[in-house]
Structure formats: C-alpha cells, structure tokens
Amino acid sequence: MQKTEILESLREAYGEELAALGEKNRDIVVLDADLSSSTKTDIFGKKFPERFYNMGIAEQSMVTAAAGLSLAGKTVFASTFAVFLSNTYNVIRQSVCYNEVPVNFVVTHAGISLGEDGPTHQILEDVGIMSGLPNMKVIVPVDSIETRRVIDYLAVKKKNPYYVRLTREKFPVLNEESYEFKEGKSVTFRDGNDITIMAYGIMVSFALKAAEALKSKNIDARVINMSSIKPIDRDAIIKAARDTGKIVTAEEHSIYNGLGSRVSEIVSEEYPVPVKRIGMPDIFGKSGKGMELFDYFHIGISDIEKITENFYREEFK
C-alpha cells in the first residue's frame, strides 16, 4: 500500500517553532520587514509583541538593527522575502559577516514556486550570493520537520550568521519526527549504486519520485538531501562519486553558483566524475502557477527522470 503524501508549509513551521522557542528563551528577538503575515513571524509577534520588531519596508535598517541586537546579547531572527533581503547584500557583508555577528536570516518566497508574483520576486541567485560571503552559512530545509529542527538548532546562539531559505509552497514531509539536523551533513533518502541525484528543498521529493520511476528502467539511483549548502558534506559528495561514477544535481535555483557548482568544484578537486546540473539556466522566472513552472522550465519530476536516464546511459552509446 502506497504511503499517503503529507504536505506542510515550511514558513508556518518556522513561525510556530519560533513562538514555541520564545516561551523557553527570552533572549530570542524577531525582526521583519512588513511581511510578517507572509513569513509567519507574526505568530511569534502576537505572542511576544515586546520582542518583535516590524521594521517596515526598510530591509537595510532591519539588518543593521539585527546586528546591534545580536551584539547586545540577543538571539536574533530576521525575516523577509528572499528577493528583498538580497537588496541588503552590502549591509550584510559589512555589518554582519565582516564583523562575524551571529544573525539568523530566515527568508521565504524564494524560487519559481513563488508562482504568480513573477520574475521580479522569484529570486534564483540567492544561494550563490549568500554562500559567497565569508562567515555566512547557508541552509535550505527539505520539509517542515527539518525546518523546525534547523530553527531549534539556531535558537542556541552560534558564532556565525546563517541564511535559511524557505518558499511559499507546501512541501511533502520526508523526515520522521525524530530527525535531528546536523550542520554540514547530508541525508541519504534512497540508496543506489548506478547514479546519484543530489538536491535540496522541494527538489528532493522530485528526485525521489524520479528515482522510483528509474527503478522500472533498471537504474538504481541514490538520492541525497544536501540541505546544508555551506558548509557542505564533502565526504558524501566524494563517496557518491566513487560509488556511482556520475552525479546529477537538482535545485530550484540558477545552475550558476548553486549546488551544482559546489558539487562540480569538489569532484573536480577530489575525484573527477561527470556531473549534470538541473536547475534554472541563465534566465529569469515567469509568472504562473508555482508547481506548474517546474515543468515549464524543464526541471520537474519527469525532466529529472529523463535527464538522469539519458545521462546514465551515455556511457553505453
């Protein structure tokens, strides 16, 4: 009997977990840039108004204030849409990363799954932008459970700033409730010896469905959740290269400076094997229904299946 797929919102999980943690830790403060009903930080704000700051449509001021609150000893979470935080790149660079100030930037509405808001809001470059900043760590949770565990992890104040990327759409729940997030470590959801598919976010569930379809074609695909983008699990990448000989990366992001680039860099240095990158090419997104856009841009489930099959069979031509 096939297991029923459960869909849950990552941003709601974020807001609910923040509010639960606020009960236990009075040093947690939350900032938002006039989008708290969408990012779901309003769940925390309604419960703890004295520790919630709506900074208005002033993202640069939000980043500066977040840095100051952190330096004053607070555990700080700052949220807005991913595309709007990118406007503050230089402020994050100078005020947060350069000074090694621990601020937790948790952004929502990233990628093409944002849908109808269109290309002006569908940021596809943010993982690369934030990964390039010294001291910044980057995490893209796979489901609501991992989102909660990541927020639990960050609620114990760290020494570095973090960028956590969430989206608008609900994702399939893949983890068990007992799951524990480990920074710099990947999770293998499906083992296989013929080829490896590495992904993060919604693309992990797509990869798992593609791998099941490939099984009927006698292709045994390994599927790995690479939610910790920086630091990344180098050992898992090298092991996959050695074990399966080919790696496919799948991401709701530009193929430039994302997971595909990081995996390619590591295998080229450590154990060279062919890598195929699935993601957005050198283009912007498009307005449309969020989940339909994956098929439109040829990065959906059937596309992952087809590309992976062709890539695997290339050696037999």
Protein described:
There is one protein chain. By secondary structure, the protein is of the alpha/beta class. The protein folds into 2 domains: 10-172, 3-Layer(aba) Sandwich (Rossmann fold), CATH 3.40.50.970; 187-313, Rossmann fold (3-Layer(aba) Sandwich). The protein is 40% helix and 20% strand. It contains 13 helices and 14 strands. A 7-stranded mixed sheet has the order 3-2-4-5-7-6-12, sandwiched between helices. Strands 9-11-10-13-14 form a 5-stranded mixed sheet, with helices on both faces. The radius of gyration is 19 Å and the shape is globular.
Question: What's the structural blueprint in terms of helices and strands?
Answer:
Blueprint: E1 7-9, H1 10-24, E2 28-32, H2 36-39, H3 42-47, E3 52-54, H4 59-71, E4 75-79, H5 82-85, H6 89-97, E5 103-107, H7 126-131, E6 137-139, H8 144-155, E7 162-165, E8 170-172, E9 187-190, E10 195-199, H9 202-215, E11 221-225, E12 228-230, H10 234-244, E13 247-254, H11 259-270, E14 275-280, H12 290-296, H13 301-313
Parallel strand pairs: 2-3, 2-4, 4-5, 5-7, 6-7, 10-11, 10-13, 13-14
Antiparallel strand pairs: 1-8, 6-12, 9-11
